[in-house]
Structure formats: structure tokens, C-alpha cells
Amino acid sequence: xxRTGAVQPPAAAVQGLSSIKPxxxxxxxxxxxxxxxxxxVLALTAxxxxxxxxxxxxxxAQVIAAVLLAMLLxxxxxxxxxxxxxxxxxxxxTMIAADVVRFAxxxxxxxxxxxxxxxxxxxxxxxxxxxxxxxxxxxxxxxxPDDRRDDARRAGRVAAYGAAPVAAGLFSVLALIxxxxxxxxxxxxxxxYLTAVVFLASGAAVSALPGLPSTGVVPVSSPLRLAFxxxxxxxxxxxxSPAAGGGMPLSGLALGxxxxxxxxxxxxxxxxxxxxxxxxxxxxxxxxxxxxxxGLGFGVFLGPRVLGPFSRRRLLGLAVVAxxxxxxxxxxxxxxxxxxxxxxxxxxxxxVAYAAGTTLAGGERDGHDGRGAHPGHDGHDGHDGHxxxxxxxxxxxxxxxxxxxxxxxxxxxxxxxxRVKLLGDGVYDLHGTSAALLIVAVVALLSxxxxxxxxxxxxxIPLLPDLTAAALRGETYxxxxxxxxxxxxxxxRDRGVFIAFEGGEGAGKTTxxxxxxxxxxxxxFEVVTTREPGATKTGMRLRALxxxxxxxxxxxxxxxxxxxxxxxxxxxxxxxPAMERGAIVVSDRYIDSSLAYQGFGRQQRVDDxxxxxxxxxxxxxxxxxxxxxxxxxxxLNRITSPADRIESEPQAFHERxxxxxxxxAEAEPDRYLVIDASLSQAEISRQIQDRIRAILPDPxxxxxxxxxxxxxAITDA
Length: 717
Ligand SMILES: Nc1ncnc2c1ncn2[C@@H]1O[C@H](COP(=O)(O)OP(=O)(O)OP(=O)(O)O)[C@@H](O)[C@H]1O
Ligand SMILES: Cc1cn([C@H]2C[C@H](O)[C@@H](COP(=O)(O)O)O2)c(=O)[nH]c1=O
Fold this sequence. Notes:
The protein has helices at 10-14, 21-51, 57-88, 91-112, 115-142, 149-179, 184-207, 223-233, 250-277, 281-306, 312-332, 336-361, 382-415, 432-455, 463-473, 509-522, 537-547, 556-580, 591-601, 606-616, 632-638, 651-667, 681-695, 704-708; strands spanning 418-421, 427-430, 497-503, 527-531, 584-588, 624-629, 672-676. By secondary structure, the protein is mainly alpha-helical. A five-stranded parallel beta sheet has the order 4-5-3-6-7, sandwiched between helices. Helix 6 (149-179) packs antiparallel against helix 10 (281-306) and helix 9 (250-277) runs antiparallel to helix 12. The longest helix is centred in the middle third of the chain and has 34 residues, at 382-415.
């Protein structure tokens, strides 16, 4: 993952590493072994189906689910044990032995030809795979230079998960080709033999590997512990995420991941029997598996790219709801073609949810401390954060999928088939499988909607324009600013000019306010430079209170009122007296900061805040507001001092503040000068001076210059 939260393209991860010969060979071996792994899931479940073909659908579904459970359980129960054991073994020997043992187990299944042995073999294959995984995970990064280790990990994942659609496609094709001449049992035998050969090929590829480091693997945490620790420690909004200094409402994230994993697990658990009920047999089963795995890969890769500036939290919430709706469709429309395509969409939604979820849990963009999450700021290493996030999410997903696989087939058995009478003469046959999927879909939909509500960080901003702005224009949607009826008339004054500098953190307001003041003084004006909050004695106390990170639990309304109180004092004691003297007041922030931060940032009603501030300032509006526009990440990176309470807000908060400033500027173009703050300081100053020149009064009362023939005096504030 990149620092901006985008998942790096898989191709980019592998690129360049292929020139490292040992790594390339290991990658081929891992791809083959992963292909064998996914094929073994399909072949063993197909075998279970063939051995129980005389049973009724629910009976058959339960045996197939038992095989899936046997393949999932070792990962949940023994992962740390396998990791510790693998650390002591020679890597090459372990990998070759794992491939050979899996070969032997798969060949034995058709020879023994019994349900009990199929189950046992599935369990043993999964146990051996568990030993193989940590060895391979540690070996890839050890074969590349230090600065490519992350890429090696990513490339490993591409090999492991990229093999899934290939395996499913291969299985489908095999089932189709053998379908005419062979019965289900022979087809399952053929798939098992083919899988065994793939493992043998992987073993051969490993044995040809030069220079594999001998021992030592990365420690493996228990998925159960990871999942439950993460869920416990993040169920309250203010606690840190397991991954990084997160603090996002992770109950929303967890709910979302659980809902998606339940949906996918439910489909997988009954895919074989559902395909049979819909007349698709093994090719149909393979097609469903291919659609799901292809969709997943597509979603992980494409989702975050297509909707670049779209809120990751909204994206995750939407993807979860979309996955649940897909499952609803899969359960109700009993047509194989529709089921295959909808399963593909379910995969896409799950992939998008996974990519957005990893970004969020990794705290790289949307963590509680948007800056702290960057490497070097608070000691959190981006890679560690991402790896922990990956581990946590995978564990939650694994446990939820396991629950679905264990629960859905028996539920289908209990529900049995029903004939529902429709209006007129129509009838609708609701299979037990469909009914079970329907129940999971409803649970997932409710969880998805709840997750969306909890995750949504743009409440009040309509979804459709927000989506369209991101998808079509590649920008964050800024809602139009509501018309505010001023409670007090604009202040009328004879003399003085008021210029405010606005913008996000580190945009250069202080720098430019100072340069403008110097320039104005050079031209003979009395200039008062000031700032908010904290220009008066009371203001300084308020500033300390507002910006101290120790100030916790301050409500949004109280924060708004404190900024308004500071402003009231500022206007009464500094700005107004200066303007009455005829001075030019240059203020670093003013009302628009409250509209942008407390309004857009905190998602409170902007017109309420405008009204409050109009009252606090008796309607004093700047003659000119200079908005320095800079992406929040760049501004925050400019600041070297520790982040204060507001700067520590998540990235999404600062994005909203920026879109708020933009909306305010668009609503009042005459009062605003908007400048790209990434330009040089000198260029920005030049643009500001050009604009200020137009609103300046004559520094010397009209006629004085003619009378005295003197140049205007320079007055210091
Ligand atoms: N145009 C620019 N290009 C690069 N760096 C700049 C530019 N303008 C200011 N800086 C630097 O960015 C940092 C922040 O600038 P400054 O304090 O003026 O920003 P600010 O908007 O007032 O920040 P804050 O929100 O903390 O008040 C300073 O180190 C400053 O030197
Ligand atoms: C006036 C005003 C300010 N803020 C926020 C914006 C900044 O994070 C701090 C001020 O710090 P700076 O370094 O002086 O820019 O306060 C706000 O949220 N609302 C306001 O009205």
C-alpha cells in the first residue's frame, strides 16, 4: 500500500523482482503450490459431493461443508503452533515435504474412496499447508534487497490469491470436458489426481531453487486471538485500532468485514449443491468459484482506483451493503447464469471492502491521527501498520467465514424446500439452500447498513453527487453553501481595511500574512497583524484550551462557541479599534475557519455557525479573504512541531475542511482570492499584492501629497 492509502498495483509489486532469479523461481513454486491449494479445495468438495450423491441435498450440503470446515479449522486453531514448528525446520526440506505429503494425500482419496478419509485428508492437507505458509512468507523477502521486501510480500500475495481464479477456471473446464463421458465420481478423481500432480510440480520447482535461507520464519499470531483482541480493543470510538493509532469507529469496520465474510462464506458453503439444484453440476460449481475469486481480485485492484478521492469509510460501507444485496439476489433468483454473474459482483464488492478496510485499519489515511500514522511521525511504521491491519482483517474474515460454512448448510437442511404460492396461478420454489442464503443476506444487509451508518464520515453530504464527483470528475464533492441571512447588517466604516488569510494546516497563512504586512507597511500604511484564536489575553487562554491535546471530550458545539468567544473578544478589542483608526488589519484566520472546521469538518450546520459568528462579530466581514489552497497531506507535512488537537484529526476531517473552504470561496467569489499554495512564497506574495492593491485606500488623505510633495510616511503598528 502506498502512503496515500492506495493499494499498489499487483503488477507493480512483481515488476523488477522477476529479474532476481532465486525469487523468480520461488514465486513460480509458490504459484504452483497455491494453485494446488485452491484446486484441492474444489476437488475435495467435489469428491465429497460425489460420494454423497445418493443423499438428499441438505445431507450432501452438510458433508461438503464438513470438508470445507476441515480445511479452514487448522488455520484457526493451529496457526501459531505451525509457525513455531516451521521456524525450527529447514525451509527447502519443509516446502518439498509439504508438497510431497499433499501429493500423497490427494492421490490416496480416490483410492480409499470414503467420506471419512476424504474428511481426514482435507484436514491433513490443510495442516500441512499451515506449515508451508510461514516458510514461504519468510523466504520471499529474504531473497530480495532490503528495500524490496514489502514488494516481495505483495508479490507473494499475488501468487497466493491470484491462483484462486485460475484454479476455479481450470476446475470448471475439466468438469466440462469430462462431463459428457465420466460420472461425478470419476470427474472428482480426475481433479484430485491433477491437483496432486500440481503439488508434485511445485515440489520439483522448490528442489531446483538455489540459495534458499535455511531456517527462521516470521512469528504467526492466532487468528482467533487477533480477531477477538481487535474487536474488543476497537469497539469504543476513542480506542486505538489494532493496526495503528487508529481510533476510528472500528465496530463499524469489524461489522462490515464480518458481513462481507459471512456473505462470501455462505455462498461458498452451498455453491456445490446450489449449482446442482440449478442444473449446473460441477462446471456450475467451478463457474461460481471462478466468478467469486475473479471478482475479489478485480475489486481489490480496481475499487480504490476508480473512486480515488471518495471517502474510504463511505466506500467500505457501500461495498458491504452491495455485497449483501448481491447475496439477496443470489438467494432469490434461482438461475445459474444470474447466480454466477451476481457472485462475480459479490466478489467485486468484497474486494473493494477488503481494500478500503485494510487502508482504514492500517490508519494510513483515516486514522485518528492523520499525521501520526505516517512513518517517522510517531514511531509507527507504515508497513507494520499495514501488516497488522492485514492480519486483523484476515482473522476476522476467516472466523466469520468459518461460522458461515458451519451454519448455512445445516440451516438449509432445517429449512427444507418450500413451494410459495404467488398471485394468480404462479408458484415459487424456495429451496432450503436459497432460504438459508436469504437469511444470511438479510443479516448481512442489516449489519452492512449499520456499518455504513457508523463508518460514514460525510453525514449530511448526499451520496449520489458525492459518488459522481469522485467517479466522473475525480474530486471530492463540496455541497453548496446555504444562504445565510445575516443577523446584523454588514459593519459600516469610514476607514480601515480588513484582510483575512484562510486555509488548512500549514498552507502558508502566517508566512503570507507577514509578507503582506511588510509590503503594506513599506507603502506607508498602518498595519495590525493579528490571528485567531489567541490575539487577546482571554483569547490566548482559549487558544491553549482549544488546541491542547489534553483537552479531550470537548463537544463540537462547545468548541464552536469557544472559537466564537475568542472571535468576539478579538473583534471588540483588536480589530474594530484598529479599523476605526484607519489601519489595515491582516488576520491569520477569521470566521471562515469556523465555517470550514466546525461546520464542514465537524459536520455541523454551517448556517447555524454563520449566524452565531455574525452575532459575535456584529456583522464584521473581511474586505478580502485570501484562501491558500493546499492538499491537507502536503500542509501537514510542512509542519514540524507536534500535532495539536485539531491538526491530529483524521485525514478525512482535513479533506472536508478544504472542501468547505472551496465551497465558501465559490459562494462569494468577489470577496475571495483563491491561490494555489504549492506555488513559491514569492509567487503567492505577488498574486496577493496584485489583489490587495485594488482595494487599498489612498495612504495619505486626498490632496496631502500635492500639498507636501512628500512620499507617504511608513507607520509601524
Ligand atoms: N509556498 C510555500 N512553499 C513551501 N513551504 C512554505 C510555503 N509557504 C510557507 N511554507 C512553509 O510551511 C510551513 C508552514 O507555514 P505557515 O506557518 O506560514 O503556515 P500556516 O498556514 O500559518 O500554518 P498553521 O495552519 O499551522 O497556522 C513553514 O515552515 C513555512 O516556511
Ligand atoms: C479560527 C479557527 C481556528 N480553528 C483551528 C484551525 C487550526 O487547527 C487551529 C489554529 O491553529 P493555527 O496554527 O493558528 O492555524 O484552530 C478552528 O477549528 N476554528 C476556527 O474558527
